[in-house]
Amino acid sequence: MKRSMRAMVLTAPGATLEERKVLRPEPGTGQVRIKVSACGVCRTDLHVRDGDLENAKLPLILGHEIVGTVDALGADVSLHKPGDRVCVPWLGSTCNNCFYCLSNRENLCEHPLFTGYTVDGGFAEYTVADQNYVFKAPEGYSDVELAPLLCAGLIGWRSFKFADLKAGQNLGIYGFGAAAHIITQVALYKQIKVFAFTRPGDLAAREFALGLGAAFAGGSDEEPPEKLDAAIIFAPVGDLVVQALKCSRRGAVIVCGGIHMSDIPAFPYHLLWNERRIQSVANLTREDAEEFLALAPVIPVKTSTIEYPLIRAAEALDDLSHGRFSGAAVLLI
Question: How far apart are CA 87 and CA 312, in angstroms?
Fold first, then answer.
């Protein structure tokens, strides 16, 4: 007899998530079923809900920062066993056969599946996932503390690698939310100075950044006390690309860390000249996950979280959209 489970379901772009009883998923070949204990609430979930990211599976269970325990195995599973504490990120699977997969760029796969976007995610009591894209949970973190590392942390880490900074250099971070508060800790560990830029007037976010060790915290329309060697833009605001270029040194890279951004306005070429460059970040690789999940406990990265019960998932998304908290929101399942 098939059993049901509770899930928060998106039925159409722009709709409010609905609590529903749905069939508990059964793991297919190569899949594991996970009893979800915590799931982070990410800005990408907002973009999926609002229809900024098109072609989502509908109806859909959002959520791609999943922590839980392996509950059942499909056929031909060898990497995990029942009772394993595991985590699941955005990248759900890749084809392993296209040009990008064969050139070690699986994040650009032509036929991928994404957790909580093209396959159901973790805003539910159970989920299933491809065994090859499920990771052993690192020690030293509660389920709630771990959840934000699985997207805010992983995409932040990939963005940070593109910044390619050395000790003593300056990093500007625009949009001081979940990813920013994690990557600030990574940058400081590597002896890189952090300049934080928040929404104009958001004094709480500035205090949060300074409390983490940022050397400067101001509005996104302000200039830092020193020119930037690199900047990472987590806020989905195209105007910030131009602002970051204005604040950067020769040879700087401006990394766009979000999956969606408003249009970048026209700007004079001299802002880009002198070998400045703009770099987008797409998805993540399993190598990114392995690197960061090994590094985070060493630093150690501490996550600042606010907890919501599963039934308040829609409220958590709205609070994230309006910047009503610092750090990361996590659903308790």
Answer: 22
